[in-house]
Amino acid sequence: MNSDQHILVTGGAGYIGAHTVVELLSAGYKVTVVDTLERSEYRMIEGIESITGIRVDFHKIDCLDFVALDTLFAANDFSAVIHFAAYKSVNESVVKPLEYYNNNLGSLLSVLEVMKKHHVQDIIFSSSCTVYGQPDQIQVDESAPFKTAESPYGSTKQLCEHILKDVATDGFRVISLRYFNPIGAHPSAMIGELPIGVPNNLVPYVTQTAAGVRDKLTVFGNDYNTLDGSCVRDFIHVSDVASAHVKAIDYLNQQQKGNLFDAYNLGTGQGVSVLQLVKKFIEVTGVKLPYTIGSRRPGDVEKVYADPSKINKAFGWSTTYDLGQSLIHAWQWEKKIRNLKGI
Ligand code: NAD
Ligand code: WQD
Is residue 153 among the annotated active site residues? Predict the structure, then answer.
């Protein structure tokens, strides 16, 4: 049990944050969540409570609000912060770059300031495979350089990692987790992804199409140099992403005190094409999924997946769900939120 350790989770009502809170509570950690609920809903907190049977200490606080964070830190004895709070849409970031720089950099800076003031050293940061830009390697390891970011969103993740690397010399211990493509939902279907408007990401578009909310899925390009012409990605179950955060906290607990910055890829290590995913969805759910082939989406990388050997070795972490299970869980969640029965 780790009940003596109190973890602050920013953005903990969001998709990955909520799944991580479930894993932390299940591992015996005490958890406090802050979230504006701007990009999520309180039902995620209720879902966490239904799964774990534990009441969540939730505060509607904006991470840009230093005074509110300061008051929260003064009233609690946090041992670490997991910082999810950020905006995450690539497309939106192109239209609203200032909002993205302001929120994604501002929230990190304010969290670091308050941590420093209250002598909290350990932070786990939500980074992204997007930091690699268009990588030269197909199976990317952490030594790959940051290429030009494909979007302001990607730039914010690169800049946040730079900031974290710099502050690590100032008493912080930082683990940056570079997620590849998180998909799926908790197996209980109590929590999952709540996309705003028309989804940009593949799996929510797939489940919304299967649910009849969208007419058909467009596969963006079938003329890439891949096994079936569609792009290849590393799709990882969100609960596996979540469990890696618990392992990261456990790992920091085992390290000597002192400065630390380390980044880890968080993926399965398996490349899966868009068409393979579509076919797998139809196979495992048995539902109809109308789709058509469209033109390439600007900015898409042809083929990229993680080399996760660093995190496998350092944390003793590996994935537990396969693609079929991830898609079944995504579909169960979609049916739950749409109140669909009998399909
Ligand atoms: P999400 O939008 O579901 O969750 C983010 C949460 O943060 C939301 O609940 C939102 O209301 C909250 N939030 C945003 N700004 C805030 C602020 N200033 N103060 C307090 N709360 C704030 O997104 P997610 O998919 O759970 O992503 C979590 C993190 O992981 C983000 O940093 C994202 O950039 C990163 N990430 C996500 C993916 C992905 O595909 N989902 C991939 C790589 C990295
Ligand atoms: C996957 C594949 C599309 C929708 C994004 C961010 C990245 C990270 C993860 C945050 C691509 C294809 C999609 C559709 C399609 N997020 N597709 N039809 O682009 O790999 O990564 O999410 O950090 O930064 O860029 O994910 O789910 O948008 O696309 O054919 O309707 O599915 O072209 O090949 P992506 P995605």
Answer: yes
